[in-house]
Amino acid sequence: QVQLVESGGGLVQAGGSLRLSCAASGNIFSINAMGWYRQAPGKQRELVAIITSDQSTNYRESVKGRFTISRDNAKNTVALQMNSLKAEDKAVYYCWIVTTGVQYWGQGTQVTVSS
DSSP character for 73? Predict the structure, then answer.
């Protein structure tokens, strides 16, 4: 079994910052990609940022220049530094990993941005 434990969500004013963290544990042989998705009320879940095992990154256009994803392969952790937060960033953020052909999701952490 693989477990993903997220932390770091909360309430922040527009323009502020939050840092999300996710730790993967359990029967993990290797993690290929790690990333963060988000889902706002009434909307589909969307990819925010992804990072591969060789540290290559890709971001949703709307968060480029504001969000930074990072990972620690030795600790099986992934983080998302979110700066200059906007009201439209409000959502439940989910940690996501892909191991050898299997993907796993965290339970989600709420990010609320007040204007």
Answer: T
Query: Which H or E run includes 68?
Result: strand 67-72
Does the CA dihedral 46-24-82-63 come out positive or negative?
negative
Name every residue whose Cβ is closer than 8 Å to that of residue 80 and which is 6 or more positions away in sequence. 19, 20, 36, 48, 49, 67, 68, 69, 93
Q: Which residue(s) pair with 24 in the sheet?
A: 4
Chain segment 41-57, per-residue pLDDT in tens: 999 999 999 999 999 99
The token duo for 42 is 């009434």
In a 3-state reduction of DSSP, which class is residue 78? Answer: strand
Other C-beta atoms within 10 Å of 51: how many? Answer: 21
As a residue count, the chain comes to 115
Q: Give 67's DSSP letter.
A: E
Tell me the mean pLDDT in the region 6-33: 95
